[in-house]
Design goal:
This is 3-hydroxyisobutyrate dehydrogenase family beta-hydroxyacid dehydrogenase. This protein is of the alpha/beta class. It contains 13 helices and 9 strands.
Length: 283
């Protein structure tokens, strides 16, 4: 079975490589065609063409606006050809917009699975992502064998929008940990403690976390090529604050990390990996 894939940014390319490595045949669409011209996959010119050539299509886009464009643009996914096809949306969407995507696709006879991804490039390449799915249970069960090829941990939450809300909650941990680790690293350097040694000690001490394991080398090398960008974490924490406001709940620990990542965006560093927040504390 051929799998369609829309959105070949850093994460999208890593997931495509993983699927290809385990024997899946891919057909891809990316808005920026130059970015994918050297990739070894069959390429199409429109999202609609993917519907004609595949029964399951992944979307891995930046935000809900990008998803909406893919659905509603000329020769987009919202057309007669979507009937009976399954759309697996890996995007971290707005928790309200994702409800509209469920309704729009399902009402036209398609099957929408909300399926945000936890993890970035490194675990994606090894098939060790975490995914949380919301949508029709029978659709989830049908595509679970495909999800198992990209994810080590798979969870199902039946109520639409639940997976997206859980992803935003998870990213509060992610952003908060990254800010704390970055500040601890810079503080250790201010005490004339070698950065590599400080990170090694944090890694067996209070800093133990998947975040530290994933970002230690980036902090040492100060290589901030993006696996998960400042723009992305800033967007997600902003959406989480909107959710808290709607729930009439305070969200104390999200405020400072969100504003620090906003500062990175303001400094023109939005496209850097979110570990580059270290630069704020170092400088």
């Amino acid at each position: 079975m051929k799998i369609g894939f829309i959105g070949l940014g850093n994460l999208g390319q890593a997931i495509c490589k993983r699927l290809s490595d385990v024997g899946e045949t891919l057909i891809v669409y990316n808005r920026n065609k130059e970015k994918i011209e050297n990739l070894p996959y069959e390429k199409v010119d429109t999202p609609r063409e993917l519907l004609l050539k595949s029964d399951v299509i992944f979307m891995c886009l930046f935000d809900s606006d990008a998803v909406s464009h893919i659905l509603s643009r000329e020769n987009g996914l919202l057309c007669d050809e979507i009937k009976g096809k399954t759309i697996i949306d890996l995007t971290t969407n707005d928790y309200k917009d994702v409800l509209e995507f469920h309704d729009a696709i399902n009402s036209m006879g398609g099957n929408y699975l909300e399926n945000p991804v936890f993890g970035s490039v490194a675990p994606a390449l090894k098939g060790e992502l975490t995914v949380v799915s919301s949508g029709k249970e029978e659709i989830f069960k049908n595509v679970k064998p495909i999800l198992e090829k990209i994810a080590k941990e798979i969870f199902y939450l039946p109520v639409p929008s639940s997976a997206t809300k859980m992803k935003l909650i998870n990213n509060l941990c992610l952003g908060s940990f990254m800010v704390t680790i970055a500040e601890c690293t810079a503080m250790a350097e201010s005490c004339d403690i070698n950065k590599s040694k400080a990170l090694e000690i944090l890694g067996v001490g209070g800093g133990q976390s998947l975040v530290l394991k994933a970002k230690t080398q980036k902090l040492i090398d100060e290589d901030f090529s993006a696996h998960f960008s400042n723009n992305a974490i800033n967007k997600d924490l902003h959406l989480l604050q909107n959710l808290a406001y709607e729930l009439k709940k305070p969200l104390f620990s999200a405020a400072i990390p969100k504003e620090l990542f906003s500062k990175m965006k303001m400094l023109g560093k939005g496209d850097e990996d979110f570990s580059s927040i270290y630069q704020l504390f170092k400088n």
